[in-house]
């Protein structure tokens, strides 16, 4: 066991080309990265696996079972998350008086419309109007400040 610990400690002193060579000797393939910490960790792990044994047959079969159950996305876009329960309904027009002008923002399915442009959030609309960062819900009166 101390030999293994010493061998792993000695890996830290190797250069990247030396670690790449060691990686190729223990894995039999070229590494996918030439990053020193990545190479060191992978080679150290493989040496431990070779000397101390890898996963048990039971663990390997359980992993294979779990992997076979994984369903990867098909590339279709995931459904949009539901809006928060206190979000304004689609089609609502929010009105705010700002510097003597009435600002009208329409709530749409994909965000908010103001002045011919679309925005992803009320905060983005408020920033476009004021030039400063605002909490959009606070700016349009949908929320109040909490006491400090």
Any overview of this molecule?
It is built from 6 helices and 4 strands. With 148 residues, it is of the alpha+beta class. Helix 2 packs parallel to helix 3. It folds into 2 domains: 63 residues; 47 residues, no CATH class. It has a 4-stranded antiparallel β-sheet with strand order 1-2-3-4, covered by helices on one side. The longest helix is centred in the first third of the chain and has 17 residues.
Question: Which terms would index this structure?
Answer:
148 residues; alpha+beta; 4-stranded antiparallel β-sheet; 4 strands; elongated
Topology overview:
Blueprint: H1 2-11, H2 16-27, H3 36-52, H4 57-69, E1 93-98, E2 101-108, E3 111-114, E4 117-119, H5 122-130, H6 136-139
Antiparallel strand pairs: 1-2, 2-3, 3-4
Helix pairs in contact: 2-3
Q: Can you give the helix content as a percent range? A: 40-55%
The main sheet comes to: 4 strands, antiparallel
Average the pLDDT over all residues and give the rounded result.
89
H and E string:
HHHHEEEEHH
* Structural class based on helices, strands and sheet pairing: alpha+beta
Whole-number count of domains: 2
Number of separate helices: 6
Query: Which outline best applies?
Result: elongated
User: Going across the major beta sheet, what is the strand order?
Assistant: 1-2-3-4
State the end-to-end distance: 58 Å
What's the total count of β strands? 4
DSSP strand content: 5-15%
Radius of gyration: 29 Å
Unreliable stretches, pLDDT < 50, 5 or more residues?
A: none
């Amino acid at each position: 066991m101390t030999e293994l610990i010493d061998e792993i400690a000695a890996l830290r002193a190797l250069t990247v080309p030396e670690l790449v060579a060691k990686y190729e000797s223990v894995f039999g393939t070229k590494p996918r990265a030439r990053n020193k910490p990545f190479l060191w960790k992978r080679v150290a792990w493989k040496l431990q696996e070779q000397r101390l044994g890898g996963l048990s047959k039971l663990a390997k079969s359980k992993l294979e079972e779990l992997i076979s159950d994984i369903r990867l996305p098909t590339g279709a876009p995931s459904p949009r998350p539901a809006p928060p329960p206190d979000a304004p309904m689609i089609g609502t027009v929010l009105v705010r008086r700002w510097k003597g002008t009435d600002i009208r923002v329409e709530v749409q399915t994909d965000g908010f419309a103001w002045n011919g442009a679309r925005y992803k959030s009320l905060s983005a609309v408020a920033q476009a109007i004021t030039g400063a960062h605002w909490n959009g819900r606070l700016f349009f009166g949908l929320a109040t400040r909490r006491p400090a």
